[in-house]
Amino acid sequence: MNQRELENLACRIAADLRPGDNIFLIGELGAGKSVFARAFMRYLGVRGNIPSPSFIIDASYEAGGRTIHHIDLYRLSGKEEELEQYGVLDALDSSAVVILEWADRLDEALIEKGVVIRIDPGRDQTRRKVSVDDRRVAGA
Asked: CA-CA distance, 125 to 20, in Å (whole number)?
């Protein structure tokens, strides 16, 4: 999957959102998580610069009448104390839309209800392999 296809996938998933949905991105450094996240947020109406929240952990946006949290766990271990300190657990349990990079650092129980997207960059990032596991409860 090239970059344009990855961005199109992000838009298709964003089009199917419900309040409180969590999108969990998993992939190594440079896989395309941030590319996906930016396309996803642009589709939802976020305008302007969308920097990586690696250092602030949680960037919050208002767009289309909803709150969107862009969370990056790159600098965190995923321990519960850290997640509480940075408000990650509160965001995941809210009615906001959350898109979270480095979700493999979370306890598996935290990603049981959401959409898990695994991005394997392949050899040259033009042939990414992407899997989507929609774990949301049907009809919720």
From this structure: 31
